[in-house]
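Example S7 (structure tokens).
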């Protein structure tokens, strides 16, 4: 793409090195804005996937079971989806912002302990139960 591969680097070079202290250069381009937005979104998606995988691996190490980890994450994500459906359709709030997305990682990072502990204790209690 001509704008993002040639014009933008040249314009930024002129703005950052040639016109310092002489002239403030502002330029607006919808195509460059959309290109930068997509590039940043791809970077953010990679970071989100990496942090999700880190949380999954950490929980798997803590619990010692991939099944319990998967069920814990599934319970958290399903409650998040149900809450957002209620928020959007029952309460008619259409805004869904950046902090809503961040709350998934906050809940996964902090709130996984309760459902995972319950599932783990259930599994341990069932295996150590004495037949009577």
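Recovered sequence:
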């Amino acid at each position: 793409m001509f704008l993002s591969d040639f014009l933008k680097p040249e314009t930024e070079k002129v703005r950052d090195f040639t016109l310092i202290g002489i002239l403030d250069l502002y330029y607006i381009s919808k195509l460059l804005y959309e290109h930068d937005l997509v590039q940043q979104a791809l970077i953010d998606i990679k970071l989100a996937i990496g942090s999700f995988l880190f949380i999954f691996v950490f929980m798997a190490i803590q619990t010692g079971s991939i099944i319990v980890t998967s069920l814990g994450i599934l319970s958290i994500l399903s409650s998040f989806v149900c809450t957002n459906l209620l928020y959007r359709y029952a309460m008619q709030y259409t805004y869904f912002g950046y902090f809503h997305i961040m709350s998934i990682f906050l809940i996964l990072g902090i709130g996984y302990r309760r459902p995972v502990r319950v599932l783990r204790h259930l599994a341990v209690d069932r295996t150590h139960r004495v037949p009577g």
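Notes on this example. The radius of gyration is 24 Å.
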